[in-house]
Amino acid sequence: MAEQVISPDLGFVKDVIASGGESLKKCFQCATCSVVCNLAPDDKPFPRKEMIYAQWGLKDRLISNPDVWLCHQCSDCTAYCPRGAKPGEVLGAVRKLAIEHYSFPSFLGKAVGKPQFLVLLFAIPVVVLFIVLALLGNLNLTAIPRGEDGGIVYAKFMPEIYIEVIYIAVSAFVVFSFVMGIRRYWKDMSVDKKGQILAAGSILGTIASIIGEILAHKRFEKCELTKERKISHFLVFYSFIGLAITAAWGVFYLYVLHRESPYPLTDPMKWLGNAGALGLLIGITLVVIYRSRNKEKAGIGSYFDWLLIVVIAAIAVTGMAAQCLRLAEVAVLAYPVYFLHLVFVFFLFAYAPYSKMAHMVYRTVAMVFTKHAEKGVEIVTKAG
Ligand code: SF4
Ligand code: SF4
């Protein structure tokens, strides 16, 4: 039998424990978790093997392991684990460390995962937006120009062109960061796929089928303990899509039809925007309710999980409040709330490659890789 050299990374074990996997060492390898997991394939089950990799500090086998992302954190394994080792939470911690490992630039990956950097991370959008307002002379809220009817117009407080320049720059940075991270991740997965060649030919068919699966949220249906997560995730996911379409619609109104905001509530674009905001608020509220309801069996989640939940909730609340306060003409509250809304949106998008938001990209890539690899060719090797 060929010898295998194991290189444990004790720092990695500490990181998993610090990231929400504190119960890791309770695992005694009974494999109940792999049996109860409805998402694990029969021929390559998880998460038992990932638990022992994590206990031994085998960072290399975990960080680039696509199985870690095939887990949808449904927590069935955690509920049935006889030792209370919470494998679902341990995999969540490993995913957080994988995001951190592949993040570019890496210091942002480390900062977003640590509460001590939270104030600094929020300070960046606050300062950027504050400087823009100062340059526009809009720090005095009582002197901000009004619309022709005397009403509050947010575009006069923070003109669209400034928002677009800031958010287009942020988007370009985010895309670049994701491309850098995913390139390294894909390369590591390919290297680790010993004994198998990825399927030759186009990967487009695989991508299309995985996207179809994601849009339908099919994998959430296989969860048992937290089956209802399909509803909350579905609502949040499609609300974001609705809000993205609303933003594009607004750009079309402004630059193609030359119609300036604010638009009346009877406008179809406002219907979609308000439906998206309401869906986001309901969806994220359900996330909190379901997590609290299942906290004994499934665990309450880590700082990394809650940071994303709170930021999404804050975007929904401040967005709806900004509209209500504008319509109610409460200027002293409307402008600060709108400012906060812009800060939370900046936070969500600028830090997406480093926060739990990155799961949508890493999980999609892992699913595509796994499905594509399944079409590949097995090569029999003598190494056991
Ligand atoms: S995590 Fe729990 S269920 Fe899974 S192998 Fe370890 S002890 Fe068994
Ligand atoms: S959390 Fe759910 S999907 Fe993830 S390993 Fe456990 S049972 Fe499987």
Provide a descriptive summary of the structure in words.
This protein is 64% helix and 1% strand. It is mostly helical. The chain has 2 domains: 10-104, Fumarate Reductase Iron-sulfur Protein, Chain B, domain 2 (Orthogonal Bundle), CATH 1.10.1060.10; 106-373, no CATH class. A two-stranded antiparallel sheet has the order 1-2. It starts with 9 loop residues before the first helix and ends in a 6-residue tail after the last strand. The structure holds iron/sulfur cluster (2 copies). One iron/sulfur cluster binds at residues 27-33, 48, 51, 81, 83, 85, 87. Residues 27-33, 48, 51, 81, 83, 85, 87 line the site of one iron/sulfur cluster (SF4).
Summarize the structure.
This protein has 384 residues and is mainly alpha-helical.
- Give the overall shape: elongated
Strand order of the largest sheet: 1-2
Topology pattern, helix = H, strand = E? HHHHHHHHHHHEHHHHHHHE
Note the gap between the termini.
Answer: 7 Å
Number of domains: 2
The number of distinct β-strands equals 2
- What is the overall number of helices? 18
Please outline the major beta sheet.
2 strands, antiparallel
Ligands present? iron/sulfur cluster
Helix content, binned percent: 55-70%
Keywords for this entry:
two-stranded antiparallel sheet, 18 helices, 384 residues, 2 domains, 64% helix, Fumarate Reductase Iron-sulfur Protein, Chain B, domain 2, binds iron/sulfur cluster, mainly alpha
How are the secondary structure elements laid out?
Elements: H1 10-18, H2 32-36, H3 48-56, H4 59-63, H5 67-70, H6 76-80, H7 87-102, H8 106-112, H9 118-136, H10 154-157, H11 160-192, E1 196-197, H12 204-216, H13 229-255, H14 268-293, H15 295-298, H16 303-327, H17 331-350, H18 359-374, E2 377-378
Antiparallel strand pairs: 1-2
One iron/sulfur cluster binds at residues 27-33, 48, 51, 81, 83, 85, 87.
